[in-house]
Amino acid sequence: MLSVRTRLALALGALLFTVIGAYTVIVGALESEQLAVLHQREEDGELINATGVLALRIYRGYEDGALVTTRESADLPPTAGPVLTRDLASSVAGYFWVLDRHLIPFYFNPLVRDLPEADQILLDTLVRSIPLGGSAAHRDSITRAVSPPAVQRLTVRGREFLLYAVGVSYRPNGVDRVVVGRFATPPDKPSLGSAFLVMIPIIVLVAFGAAEIFTRITVGEVDSRIDVLMNEVQAISDGRSLHRRLPAEDESVTDSLGRLTHTLNEMIARLEQSFSALRRFTGDASHELKTPLTVLRADVERAMSTQMSPGDQLVALEEALAEITRMSDLVDSLLTLARADEGRFDLHREPVDLQALARDVFETATLLGENRRITARMPPPPPARVQGDAGRLRQLFLNLITNAIKYTPPEGTVDLALAINDGRAEFSVRDSGIGIAAADLPHVFDRFWRADHARSRVGERGGFGLGLAISQYIAHAHGGTLTVASRLGRGSVFTVALPLSTESDGEKTKKHDDERKS
To answer: Among 202, 245, 284, 478, which residue carries the largest CB count within 10 Å?
Structure first.
């Protein structure tokens, strides 16, 4: 397969060849047309000159007393005298006629006699009808000798025939006009086809040579930069060098390669972040599973011991069952997050009454708080309806409530609230617990993340650090947000904002449910 530079050179060379070839043809055509015009002017000049010379010699013959015409009778046209028959017949190249004042040709040279009879009749008619530039008196007053020439063009035997007529100063019973004619000769046109064929090798060499030089200069730099990018990407693609970045020529990203480099660097940064999160996720998941598996193994080994009493065996099996339940919850949470990452976070959307849901989770919060001597409070919630999955929203609210109770000391309070703000329903959970340090806030929703003080809670095994990550996915899946505000030692506030349901949303949901049922 041809390289990009070679293909670009071929394309540019073909373009230059086409342009140069078209330019050559156009210039040749214009030059040919110009040559035809010059040739016609040259022929016209020759005929005008011959006609004028003939007319002037006749005029001067009269002035010198030479015998130009003779007359046998006053009623008959004149006949040619010695000047016409001897001197003038050989001085004009072409056909010529001499006419008297009655426009009767009384003399013409031998070339006219050699024409076919039909042509002689046609030309005889035309030489009589050519209008001159003025009357004889007018001619005398202007030129004293001849009138301006008059031209006539016609086709004789398929060829162009030119006639030029000049009036001679009037003499009684003498010559009135002289007409000279000649077949037009085509100009010697250059053979454009032959010339172009001869020029083709030169045009090809010039076009493709210029294209190769141009592409070598312009694309060569691009090729070198692409080679550098390819080598760098190949070095980074092993997965262990994601901290590296592609070299950029400068800070500008206006050119295509600059934008490509910038985009690839952004992609590598996202991949680095994803790989780091994956490694951390794998390590944390392994750590979380290792502990319950160790406890489960010990409990099973104790229960299998023949030296233990049935009561002790029952206790060991109960502990093993608790660890199995804990591991099952962890696996369920991991599966939920995996489905969310794949875009398969299925929701059964329907109109959800948040007022009723808030009252329900408030009752649960009251029961959970009694065992830890924590007071749960909530003002009367306003009516609010959203489109969503009631089960998932309940899971989201209970995750926030469970965290608030877990990290609130005895005799503390957990305040729940449902409010309507700017077309959104906001459910908030405020606790008076230990709070979160400012440095830890950006990591609150990371998977398996728990603050150090939460990890070191005395006498209590912490959670998996997945609850808030799942809660954030649930909020985003409903088109909402989950935010946190906290200060160390002064408690935390988690707020869920969900878009309120509209009539059109309800109609869409009903239509979706009908389609699923059908």
So the answer is: 478
